[in-house]
Amino acid sequence: MKILVIEDEKMLADSIKSMLERKGFQVECAYDGESGRDFAMLGIYDLLILDVMLPKMDGFEVAEQLRLNRCNTPILMLTARSDLKDRIAGLNAGADYYLAKPFDSGELFASINALLRRQAGHVNEMAFGNTVLELGTSTLLCDGRSVRLSAREFDVMRLLLQSGKRNLSKAAILSRVWGLDSNAVENHAEVYVAMLRKKLSGIGSNVRIVASRGLGYHLEVKAV
Ligand code: CA
């Protein structure tokens, strides 16, 4: 899961980042409204944490512009001001959830979980062929057999299941799982796909991760 934190108070942004990273999220920060909006428009994040008071463009405007541009990533809005008028303005601008500063890590995680659950539409598993990925436990299941995935394996598997029979490029996997500013190279995607193939065959799955030259990967059901 990738989260973008848009917050100009660098210390707070960094502390949110490290709190979330300890929970296994991948986190990137933007320190003003404009670059936050531009990052968010890339569409590679599962959730945005958006401060209201920001230089260049405030959080309300960021949310509004994202929604106008059909960017539907869930937004958790942060503000020092908790009065009702601001909350209504934020929700009207397109925020999904509100958290008043100061907050503790427990409140932050509870809000994030609520949003991600809502985003998933209460889906807690994804299926392909004879195989199910349980989202809550990062487990692949097939005919009574199961295997746990690491955080990165899970992210790659989830993306593959989302695109199913459509090709998913290595570049898309890298930017969504490792982030734009990482040093990950295409080889990372190949290594994780190889590990997933091993785990899939280990539980007797009929799901194949098929590589198409230049196009990336897609899933197929293996004929028995
Ligand atoms: Ca601020």
Cross-sheet strand order for the largest sheet: 2-1-3-4-5
From N to C, what is the helix and strand string? EHEHEHEHEHEEEEHHHEE
Outline the biggest β-sheet: 5 strands, parallel
Stretches where pLDDT falls below 50 for ≥5 residues? Answer: none
Number of alpha- plus pi-helical segments: 8
How many beta-strand elements? Answer: 11
Molecules bound to protein: calcium ion
Bin the strand percentage: 15-25%
Radius of gyration: 19 Å
Termini separation (Å)?
Answer: 34 Å
Tell me, briefly, the overall form: elongated
**Mean pLDDT, nearest integer?**
89
What are the SSEs and their pairings?
Layout: E1 2-6, H1 10-22, E2 26-30, H2 33-41, E3 47-51, H3 59-68, E4 75-79, H4 84-93, E5 97-100, H5 105-119, E6 125-128, E7 131-134, E8 139-142, E9 145-148, H6 151-163, H7 170-177, H8 186-202, E10 207-212, E11 216-221
Parallel strand pairs: 1-2, 1-3, 3-4, 4-5
Antiparallel strand pairs: 6-7, 7-8, 8-9, 10-11
The site of calcium ion (CA) has 5 residues, from loops.
List keywords for this structure.
4-stranded antiparallel β-sheet; binds calcium ion; 224 residues; 8 helices; 5-stranded parallel β-sheet; alpha/beta; single chain
